[in-house]
Amino acid sequence: MACIVTDKVIVLANARTASMSVTQYFHNYPNSFKNRAHHMSLEEVKIRYAPHLTGRELVVANVRNPWDVMASWWMLSAHNEWNNNFAAFCKGFGHSQLFDKRMFTHHLIDLDYIIRFETLTADVLELCDRIDLPQLLRMPHVNKTPKKKPYTKYYEKFPEAVDIVRARFSRVIVQLGYTYE
Prior knowledge:
Layout: E1 3-5, E2 9-12, H1 19-27, E3 33-35, H2 42-48, E4 58-63, H3 66-76, H4 86-92, E5 113-116, H5 120-130, H6 160-168, H7 170-176
Parallel strand pairs: 2-4, 4-5
Antiparallel strand pairs: 1-2, 1-3
Helix pairs in contact: 4-6
């Protein structure tokens, strides 16, 4: 599940940003449908769902602090592929697939609303108010990362990883005001 289109909103999903939870939440509304094509760009959504779109939908995306995203991916990865080196992982993971133009940074243009991982429920409820959808009782928690500690703990052994992520995602960090805390 990667994006939901209703007659009021298009939710573009970025990996490891609670996008599956948001997708599940909006799937319960009439005139919505799930897409299992994984993390589509806005252009791909417009092509695939052209007959269903009015041009009046709000364009929304999920985002998350890039340092936290990388810690989340690390918890799901095969650490031995990276010799248990988190800095090498931050530098190399996803360059050819997950963080290209179709992921994480491509949605920052043409957005009407942002759902931040850090304020997920409040942002979703505010969006529901904005587009006149009744609020559901609770936000589902789908595909939770098994990490049990704050993301900053993953950088302690490999402090160079902080700068690697900062350089790699500088556009997102600046545009969305994220900091390493």
